[in-house]
């Protein structure tokens, strides 16, 4: 990106943009003119109109842009983490629902078994009688 393109993109006069970029480079705040510099250059007139020097305005605009970028990146990371946790929460809720259904089914079976204990006892006794009768036939 050249000064003319930066001037057009930022809406600031060519000479002013050239001066701002010169200061930004001399201060070591940027290495080259690229898309990121547009936002920095746009903020500098606000600071100079408040009485800051161009050097002070450059530093404030860069710090503000870095802070904004850092906050934006952190916000994106947090949003991704929230989405991941929400997906995990939904998965765990499904698993919990399945486990609750299994427990309810087992309780139902247990209650059914307990209500039929008399029949179960008779089956156990009958089984023993059959076993004894079978053993008696084997020896006969």
Major sheet characteristics: none
Mean pLDDT over all positions? 82
Radius of gyration: 40 Å
User: How many helices in DSSP terms?
Assistant: 5
Which bin fits the share of residues in helices?
over 70%
Overall 3D form: rod-shaped
Q: What separation lies between the terminal Cα atoms?
A: 108 Å
Q: Strand content of the residues, in percent?
A: under 5%
Total domain units: 1
SSE ordering: HHHHH
Number of strands: 0
Question: What structural class do the secondary elements suggest?
Answer: mainly alpha
Uncertain parts? none
Describe the structure in your own words.
The chain has 140 residues and is an all-alpha fold. The protein has one domain (3-139). Helix content is 86%, strand content 0%. The protein has helices at 3-10, 14-26, 35-49, 54-115, 117-139. The longest helix has 62 residues, at 54-115. Keywords: Coiled coil. It comes from Mesotoga infera.
Keywords:
140 residues, mainly alpha, 5 helices, rod-shaped
